[in-house]
Design goal:
Shape: globular
CATH architecture of the largest domain: Orthogonal Bundle
CATH topology of the largest domain: hpI Integrase, Chain A
Number of domains: 2
Number of strands: 3
Low-confidence stretches: 1-9, 11-26, 329-339
CATH superfamily of the largest domain: Intergrase catalytic core
Mean pLDDT: 81
Radius of gyration: 25 Å
Number of helices: 13
Strand order of the largest sheet: 1-2-3
Structural class: mainly alpha
Largest sheet: 3 strands, antiparallel
Order of helices and strands: HHHHHHHEEEHHHHHH
CATH class of the largest domain: Mainly Alpha
Strand content: under 5%
């Protein structure tokens, strides 16, 4: 939930029209503000290309709504009622989770305008977002993960690329944007590490498993068969079928298709592979703070949401770790027998 909308979601807008903006100088109207915001997201905040496109689309959509309703260049004059009206008219064709994302983009845009001195306050912060159930991503058990790694065709360049990409994603818990953003120089097969560029352009070194190293070696041996000088992929590690850098969209589509072929249920995604990585590492005894470092999470609470331990595993961990877990444990760690008179 973003902001805590009362039950029932967005209602027909109304009420006071407090405009908390005091306008400063305006570089090229709404279009100029949005272009400056895009540069800020890409350069200063280091947002992924996928996030950047989504935010700019949502903000531009709001600006177009204002243009139609109130005339051109109205972004700096908009108030909370304008924002609620925009979301309300989108409600018929968007789920609440999409509306919440659009509001989050608009809030971020107005936060930027406040920081840059164009406004004194953020009108989007006065708008509550609709509630929606948080859906956990589809994650795999170990057998399913192994089947997925073996699914791509090992006889074709595309299949070897897909196998290497999936092995690396599962081995190192990489985000989709981190995986497709890798360059050849980011990979150190000799040492068994990959350099991932995460959110905010933060870099981290993540171990790479033996199976992933083997799959990457097989792919790199035929990578030149996918090269296309006209595509200008540069030093991209993973190349698409036309020779350019492999895209986030193609990766997601490939993974979803393989999931369907293996009957692994709907909704399999790179994000689900990250959850699988974290869960399997924790089940195998890895320390959760080490998993946090490998995933690139700033907060341990975020990492905890990525782990999905089943009850059998929790029972086994408890039985192994707790001194009073066993039914025949009649003595403590110091060997003292309980008193015949009881306690």
């Amino acid at each position: 939930m973003v902001g805590g909308e009362p039950e029932g979601g967005l209602q027909e807008p109304g009420g006071g029209q407090s405009n908390i903006g005091e306008v400063s100088s305006e570089p090229g109207g709404d279009a100029g503000l949005i272009q400056a915001f895009a540069r800020h997201l890409g350069v200063i905040r280091g947002r992924s290309e996928h996030t950047l496109k989504a935010y700019i689309h949502d903000v531009s959509e709001f600006a177009a709504f204002l243009d139609e309703r109130k005339g051109p260049d109205q972004v700096l004059k908009a108030n909370r009622v304008d924002i609620r009206s925009h979301l309300f008219q989108l409600k018929a064709r968007n789920q609440n989770v999409s509306l919440a994302r659009k509001l989050a983009a608009i809030r971020t845009f107005y936060d930027y305008l406040v920081r840059e001195g164009f406004l004194a306050g953020n009108p989007a912060r006065e708008v509550e977002a609709p509630k929606f159930p948080k859906k956990k991503p589809r994650f795999l058990n170990v057998d399913e993960a192994f089947a997925l790694m073996a699914a791509p065709d090992a006889e074709s360049p595309q299949g070897l690329r897909d196998r290497a990409a999936l092995e690396l994603a599962y081995s190192s818990g990489l985000r989709a944007s981190e995986l497709v953003g890798l360059d050849l120089a980011d990979l150190d097969l000799a040492q068994g590490f990959v350099r991932a560029k995460g959110k905010g352009r933060k870099e981290r070194q993540v171990p790479v498993g033996r199976k992933a190293i083997s799959a990457l070696g097989a792919y790199l041996a035929i990578r030149n068969q996918l090269e296309n000088p006209k595509a200008k992929a540069g030093s991209a590690l993973f190349l698409g079928n036309r020779g350019g850098r492999l895209s986030d969209r193609v990766l997601r589509r490939t993974l979803a298709q393989l999931g369907l072929e293996l009957e692994l249920a709907d909704g399999l995604s790179p994000h689900g592979l990250r959850h699988s990585f974290a869960t399997h590492m924790l089940e195998a005894g890895a320390d959760i703070r080490s998993i946090q470092e490998m995933l690139g999470h700033a907060s341990l609470s975020t990492t905890q949401k990525y782990t999905h331990l089943n009850l059998d595993h929790l029972r086994a961990v408890y039985d192994q770790a707790h001194p009073r877990a066993h039914a025949d444990a009649s003595t403590g760690s110091g060997g003292l027998k309980p008193s015949p008179k009881g306690r």
